[in-house]
Amino acid sequence: MSMPAIRTDHLTKRYGRLYALDSLDLSVEPAEVFGFLGPNGAGKSTTIRLLLGLAQATSGSAHIFGVPATDVRSAHRRLAYVPADVALWPHLTGAEILELLARTGPGTDRGYQDELVARFDLDLRKPAGTYSTGNRQKVALVAAFATRAPLLILDEPTSGLDPLMERVFRTAVLEARERGQTVFLSSHQLAEVEAVCDRVAILRAGRLAEIAAVADLRRLHRTEIEVGFTGPAPELHAVGGVEDIESTGPGRLRLSLTGPPAPVLRALAAAEVTTLAVREPSLEEIFLAYYGQASR
Amino acid sequence: MTALDAAPAPVAPSTAGAPGRAVTRLTVRQVRRGALAVGVLAAGMSALVAATHAEVVASPEQAASLASLATNPAIRTLFGEPGDLGDPGGFTVWRTGIFLSVLLGAWCLLAATRITRGEEESGRTELLLAGLVTPRHLLARQLTILSLAAAATGAAVSVALSAAGTDRPGALVHGAGLGLTGVFFAATGLLAAQIFPARSAATGSATAVLAAGLMVRMIGDGVAALGWLRWLTPFGLTGLTRPYDTNRWLPLMVLAAMTAAVLAAAVAANRRDVRGGWLAPRAGRAPRTTLLGSAPAFALRRMLRPLSGWAAGIAAYYLLIGLIAASMISFLADNPELADLAGQAGFGSLGAVEGYAATLFALLAMPASGFATTRLTAFFADENSGRLTLLCAAPRTRQKLAGIEVATAAAGTLVLALVAALATWAGTTISGAPLSLTAAVAGALNVLPIAALGLGASALALGVAPRAIGWFGALPVVGGFLLLVIADSVRAPVWVTGLSPYAHIALVPLESPDWVAAAVMTSIAACAGAAGLAAYARRDLRL
């Protein structure tokens, strides 16, 4: 069994009486792309700050490849980081900042860095003070992806990028995974998470609400099924996992299903099904279901 | 279906709300604490010096001796042209006038660039301007409140001096001059904030105006033939009003006109893009990669520009101190009875160039430590704005990162001391009262333990109360200086005086250094610094 890239045990952070993070248990395997989701204020950035040792945990612990996160000298040799809100020294140009980060960081592949600069279409001659939010993010992304650190911690890295650059970003994430790097991606861009992540964790009010592979997550959630039939109306009320049965016309039904579809299919067998549409929920719908629960 | 067909009524902009009042309240909140501190200090110091005048100048003979000391070109250069020193008001103006006008002017310009360009740089101004407030309106409110703060300080000094029993017209002229000086530098800060798109550049250039104004005043006061120069600077103009003497209003009118001109320029320069300025940075340049290779190198790179500014100011001041040394010393040699009196008035041991240099080197502790404090304040600003986060994600402990910054600041302080020593040496050599280079270096280095206390206190604040770095750093250095001055004035018990670090340094190069005191102070500074760094490593990064 290999050492997890990130492991947290009962990781807790309290600000006064407020629990920003409440006993988080998480394990991220090497070379996986791990999505970290949650509404604003759920504790995502707090978790990342604890992983980086930028804040001290109230209780519990976090390890980066087996090294305590508080031992930053050792732990930070194994990671690179892109903050949610990238702030740069306004007088330094992009090139100077990349130079600084490369020479003070955990080691950089200069050739790959040049390639990334070209791909992200970054003008390195400008002072950082003149950069837009997206350009500042690009500087931090190039610096992080160009490191050979085995773990990349990315906190909402694409919030300022345009759709073209977001594609470049997704490619870079997949390339990192191919190289064997682990990517911990906190994001609100659910399509992006769906596209690149192997597993996701959903955080709600400082607690872990769900952690699963993206495909499993779908299975755990309500699938929408539309049926057209010519035979007798199927009796579905007694079938486990079925809810919200709705007649949408003569010989048409819509229902939602949680859990495996076998019992429903058996019940439908006698109804002479003519059309069957199964729509799995998007990550967005799953996520909104959690949002909804949080706000109610 | 009529309900659906009817177009929704257009949203009418609300006419309720009072954007002006909200902006006023915001601005007041931004400046009230500093304004109160400056006002209380100015009024308190003025009242105290006026009230203790009778003790310092007990007899008419003493008053006469003091007057002849004060008319010496060297003393005139430092303290301005004296008024009637037999009068408690005139004496107070002479002792505190320049110091208070520099203090108030500096606070006004720092506050002005902070609440204008600083807020704009951080993006908060855009939030305000997206509402009903226009840039011109915002500037007008900021200008008004800063001016009122400066005027209130002037008024507080007038009231304090009147309450201490001095003549009312003199108190009024002095207070008015002080208040106008504050408004002038607030306007200078506001103008600089319109011109430069970065807060640091705006603050730097406005500070350069203040320093130049002070230099011009010194030359005008020190060299009789160039006395007209004083009409060009607020510090000279306030001197020309001669409070408690002739109480002239003309220089005040000139100062008011100058201030109005700068204010008008600031308002005119306000026609620009938000976040823009009249001196925009170049759009692009080739990378300069020196001093980017490591954290210490980068700390040095960030320090070099401010260090050269501070070094230039300190060099100019100590060069002047050196240049007037010969005149001072020969004057005191011709008037031996004054030496004793000079001691009572707070200038001990001015008879030989070594004593003269030692006395004036004590003042060096303030800018040297002030520089170190600004470095740690800038470090915290980097942390608070998130610039430090990327460096903190590198394989290096935060304690080390902060330690590097403290060490770099200490090195900068050392450089400033050496610059002061060199400038003094050069000045004294040119003026013909030669102080050896070793003596000058020894004298300048001798005050470093006090500066170290300021740096240690600042480092402690970085760990435990980072928003109060300035106050922590000023406590031993500026607080200690004021304590000594006040304790001397009111003849406080020895233990009170002993709380000031200045009471424990020897008058090097006149005397040999007090190694024990220096070691004790340095150890206290090191302990405070170590405690601060340990606390810094344990606390959360403040973003």
Automatic annotation (TrEMBL), chain B:
The chain crosses the membrane at residues 35-54, 92-112, 143-165, 171-196, 208-229, 249-269, 310-333, 345-366, 406-427, 439-462, 469-487, 515-537. Keywords: Membrane, Transmembrane, Transmembrane helix. It comes from the Bacteria. The keyword Membrane applies. This is Polyketide antibiotic transporter.
